Give the backbone structure.
Amino acid sequence: MFDNVTITHRGARYEIGRGRDFYGIWAAGATRSHPMERWPETPEGWSAAWSRFTEIEAPGTIVPVGQRAALAVGTSTGGIIAALLVAIGVAFGVAGLFPGYLGGLSLAQQSVELVPHVIYLVAWSVSAVLILLGGARLRVGALIGLGMGIVTFGLFFADLGEVIAGGSHLMGVGLPLSLVGWLACTAGSALAFRLRPAGVSGRLGKLRGPELGPAALLVLAGLGAAIAFAPSWDSYTLRTATATQSFAAGNAFSNPGAVIAGDVMVMVAVALVVIAAALWRPVRHGAALLAGAIIPMAAQAISALIQVGEPTAPTQFGISPAQASQLGLTISNGVTPSFWIFCLCVLVLLVSCAWMLFTPHQTASLSAQAPNAGPPDAGSQGVWYAPGSGLDDMGDLQSPMTGMQHGEDARDAEHAEDAREEDVHDEGLKTAPLGARDDEGPAA
């Protein structure tokens, strides 16, 4: 029987620690007489043990012994509350589809309006499920929902702007219900974003040489989508037996002031969210934030295409049905070049999002031997990372910290790392930066 087993980290199914002269992995809660697997008590042994542990353990569940209970309770409670808020928002949004929204018509009566709102609600529902699942999924769901909330704020404000400009008689019950739904979904996503599940983090990072090209393309596509959102998208061609005339409609700056303000908010929000997504680390979480901006923009494009397929009443151009019949008037719908430019930019954003999500991002391997190559004592504080091991926010292996990571603030840690890199460089060694992640590759 092995005595003096010290468990340092636990996950959902397994735990890792040190025996008398070995490192081992045990099934969580099982007897520790014999480990499932064991390695020699050397730095290389610990590295191999940790790599194996992170390979078989569920992503996002690994925490140091003594912290698991508090982290699990806090994350579980906060995640449930956040998911519940988003679910309540979705319920209000669904309720807002059926009463009058603007001008006496409900969203359900207008497919052009119904489809984008349903897309928003489906995306927020997915966000709520991911938040409820917890761990790294919680952060992904929060970022999707938060990106959605930031971009759709301007769209809902533009709808409210119609009421501000035209009078309260235009507003039906559906509009305030939808606004409450937006508020609850955004609040729930923001609450989830503030949670810090075990092993999950996120921050704005610095761009490095190889990342500049993809990040620049992403930002340019975001700015292009924001700018192309403003010009007219809809084109109409009126034909009679003797004449043909074309019109363009939908320019954001031809609307009342309050509506213009909402459209400008959308443009600014898209640009800012895309820039933040390009800088966000880990990169896969930047993809989630980017998806939150892409979804409402894609929904707007789909809505415009639906409108092309619907008949246009002659009264929209000040012509009565009787006059239209007398003239033999026909009206055909189309879209302007600005719309296709917008679609191209959104497509680039979508491709960038997929690249960020699925492309593995490499980082340099740690070649210098780390000090304190072994797990911490049972009573020590902080999280220990073995060389060549660790989890990123999606459960992938990453180049970890060496020794003990204490509660130093980020700036002090960054200065310490700069000094360490200079020392190693002087010795002709190439090392990975402290805390570098395998997904801190080119942004998109």
Residues 68-358 form one domain. The chain has two domains: 6-58+362-426, 68-358. The mean pLDDT is 80. The chain has eleven helices and 14 strands.
